[in-house]
Design a protein that fits this description.
mainly alpha; 134 residues; elongated
């Protein structure tokens, strides 16, 4: 999978009027990955110490998996439909994770609000791109 040519392919797709410039994505995701790493790391550590049930860890782990799959799907496979399914799974597992941790470590859920807002936006963007390029 050649991600560089995938980025060129993505650049040629029809996009909605609200699509941000490509340069916005790297800094936003860099900040969000810090939030994801801290919150997932905390949940993982607490689960390993048996201070949290393993069931609370599942949505965080699935969210990481689906998040990591998005770029190879979108830019490697160049598959908008599958990328749309994946981003919906990212959104769903994030909501699930925030709900699962809310009563045990509210700060983790609240720290993920920016991630939730961005993934909500990214979901609308991806679904729009998929529709416009059907």
């Amino acid at each position: 999978m050649d991600m560089h040519s995938g980025a060129a392919w993505y650049g040629q797709l029809a996009k909605p009027f609200f699509a941000p410039p490509a340069a916005v994505f790297a800094p936003v995701w860099t900040l969000l990955y810090i939030v994801i790493a801290v919150s997932f790391g905390f949940v993982l550590l607490q689960a390993l110490k048996r201070r949290l049930p393993v069931g609370v860890l599942w949505p965080f782990a699935l969210n990481l998996l689906f998040n990591a799959a998005y770029t190879p799907i979108q830019f490697g496979l160049r598959n908008n439909l599958l990328a749309s399914v994946d981003i919906l799974l990212v959104l769903g597992t994030l909501v699930w994770a925030m709900h699962a941790i809310w009563h045990r470590a509210r700060w983790v859920a609240l720290s993920n609000v920016p991630y939730l807002l961005w993934v909500g936006f990214a979901t609308v963007l991806q679904l729009s791109i998929t529709w416009l390029n059907r």
